[in-house]
Design a protein that fits this description.
The chain has 383 residues and is α/β, with parallel strands linked by helices. It is built from 18 helices and nine strands. Bound molecules: ligand FSX, iron/sulfur cluster (SF4) and FE3-S4 cluster.
Amino acid sequence: MASKLPLAAQGDEFAGVEKRFGMPRREFLAACAGITASIGLAASATSAVAQALVAAPRPSVIWLHFQECTGCSESLLRAEHPTLEKLILDIISLDYHETLMAAAGHQAEEARKAAMAANKGKYILVVEGAIPTGINGNFCKIGGKTAIELIKECAADAAAVIAIGSCASWGGMPSTSPNPTGASSVAQILGKPVLTIPGCPPNPYNFLTTVVHYLVLGKLPDLDAKGRPKFAYGRLIHENCERRAHFDAGRFATEFGDAGHREGWCLYKLGCKGPETWANCPTILFGDVGGGSWPVGCGHPCIGCTEEGVGFTKPIHALAKLLTVSPPTQFARPAEAQGKGSTLATVATVAAVGGLAIGAGARMAKNLGNLPDHSSADEDSKR
Ligand code: FSX
Ligand code: SF4
Ligand code: F3S
């Protein structure tokens, strides 16, 4: 049962965390409070989450790499963020990870088989990278087995399969046209849905929170129709973007380095895909270096890297579909300063570009109140 004591007043139940996780107890509990909120539990459950992290047996994790840049692992393990790295590596038992393990060759293969046998039906399989299906899968072979053979063998006795990164989630960059290697997602290879944590790279907190959810509650979090945890992918980037007020006021950067860009105005006209991309980038940020540490915060339009059919597919300069919000009612004439003036024609043009009609505002209000069970960007555009 969750303790009712304030965090600072709790006794010695977390006395070992400083040694084990390499962080002050208060910092550990603060991290647990954030995770507790992310997985949708009341703040009073923070203590229970912390206790579970300290006491839960570390699940065995088999981590496979295929067609990718290893950015998923890099984002998880970057040196500037020892807290996260420590937390993850201490709550799981990473028994096989080709780029991190000291073992090599036959020794590595034996470690994988031993971990799978010892934890049959209980280990978590994490897959990073797309799986090439061309020339019978021979574009990628590890230890004499194709990626297809390996993933099927490892998934057979896994308790859960997690596709991390856009490559594993939906094919990502390797699957872009003309896709000469036949790069495919984990779900396509296994022929069944799996939990996906897309992003190129994905945000490590979304992986951490998913694992903690599994450890604490004994089940995976609620997923949307693309297999993404709703706690992380339940909102459009556009809904939480710090530049949103500029979008609503019709203030847009139209060139990199122009006055609007330097002022931090909305990047929609530079091709920002925030209005059709579901992810929590603006709320959880990257790298723990403070505010603004996410693509739009740094002045670059979101390219929709989490979103199949958008990231690496739509041209960077193409305008995004406006899925849940109405366009601004006023736009500047070309000769006027932005933020002032409009014509019916400009309003109509932008409305047509967005594919929206009257009623979108009401829909926005509805969507802000409810988590949409979006299944694809196209379906959402029809709602
Ligand atoms: Fe790279 Fe991962 Fe992108 Fe892919 O992240 S960051 S190419 S999603 O599989 O390593
Ligand atoms: Fe932010 Fe992009 Fe939406 Fe503009 S279009 S408010 S920059 S997410
Ligand atoms: Fe990717 Fe856009 Fe987030 S490019 S990292 S989904 S802001």
